[in-house]
Amino acid sequence: MSSSSQTQAYRSNGDNGDDANMHGELNEWKYRAPYKVHDNDPNFKVRYRASCHCGKVKYQLSREKPLDAKYCHCRTCQKLHAAPFQMCAIFHKEDINFTHGHHDLGWYESSEKTCVHKLPCKVSCAYCRTPIMDEGRNMILLFPTLIDWENDEDRKNFEVSCHMFYPRRIVDVPDGKPKWSGINESSELVGEGVEPEAAAHKHKKAKREQDAGNEENHESEGEKN
Fold this sequence. Notes:
Blueprint: H1 3-8, H2 20-23, E1 48-51, E2 58-61, E3 68-72, H3 75-81, E4 86-92, E5 96-100, E6 105-108, E7 121-125, E8 131-135, E9 139-142, H4 152-156, E10 162-164, E11 179-180, E12 189-190, H5 197-224
Parallel strand pairs: 3-10
Antiparallel strand pairs: 1-2, 2-5, 3-4, 4-9, 6-7, 7-8, 8-9, 11-12
Pfam families: GFA
Region (Disordered): 1-23, 177-225
Family: Belongs to the Gfa family.
């Protein structure tokens, strides 16, 4: 198998190894960041510990603060997390150490909707289905709600900087933080009072129907005259 194939699709053992066609070939992913174990690395200083709901997947973090933390209101996050929005924190792949659960990870590639470790992809516990992270080509997006906070100061290190895809929100979040129409820095800043897209579409549809009705009434009046 070519090295390019190895970096594109690896097997998750959450299915007990019975579905290699779905999850790629072999297990090389275990030995590459972000999945390789840092037990023998004296430079990896544990700063935080986290786990999924059932506890089969556990990991550590060495970085004190994420590179950034954000709220995302896109429809993909809303559906995959079954929540109004998702909180994510960006880390380097070398910042994480999986101490337990290599055999209990599952992949999901959302654009093609396949259970293949093809970057970027969603990573979850294959047993309890807790979302663990989004793995990109260069970075990982972790979900801070999995971290076992030891004090408020640690929690404050993960304060979010902005909201993404805010017009697609399900609930208003008037927290004074910057609101972006799409990905931050790559889209337009919008106000907290910007109309949600669902409501905007509904109003546009109602306006079109109203205009069509007015036009029909106008034509009827013209025929009478």
